[in-house]
Amino acid sequence: MSPYDPGEDVIAVQRAPTSGAVRGTYRAFGETLRGLKTTFARIVEGTTTIQYPEEKTPVYPRFRGRHKLHRFEDTGLEKCVGCSLCAAACPADCIRVVAAENTPEHRISAGERYAAVYEINLSRCIFCGYCEVACPFDAITMGHDYEMSDYSRSDLIFTKEMLLAEPIERTPLRNEGE
Ligand code: SF4
Ligand code: SF4
Q1: pLDDT at 122
Q2: How many distinct structural domains can be found in the chain?
């Protein structure tokens, strides 16, 4: 063999990393399969069939669903004063507020002004909850209702009257620890 003939040394150098890489791939594949087996076993154990829409999926208490506008319980006046802070905080720019002045003969809210128009375009809303956080009067909160699908986009613009109304059916809540 010539002194420059690399011969078996090169073969050994080339084989070592290749076989190591193959072993590593097999090991990773085996671990992935084991992980998938565990995941599927957990899914099957924890799966329950819910007869929707007769039976609704319960949500967590802090679930952010369809918005609700609120009134004062004692006077019935609207809490919203049309300040538009919620609209300014909305990253999806999907809230429209048009304020108007209350008068002694025509009082809608407890403040100087009220929302003559309050609309949320739910087809654009990302349910981040920023509007709820921005409101200084707790006039708007995120409810638990998640059934909002419709056939046209214009029907997903919820008006003040729709947001003030109670949902027809209450969404069940999960118990603690469920
Ligand atoms: S939840 Fe977020 S995206 Fe939806 S209206 Fe409120 S601020 Fe806008
Ligand atoms: S919901 Fe709250 S933040 Fe939005 S306009 Fe009414 S009072 Fe202002």
Answers
A1: 97
A2: 2
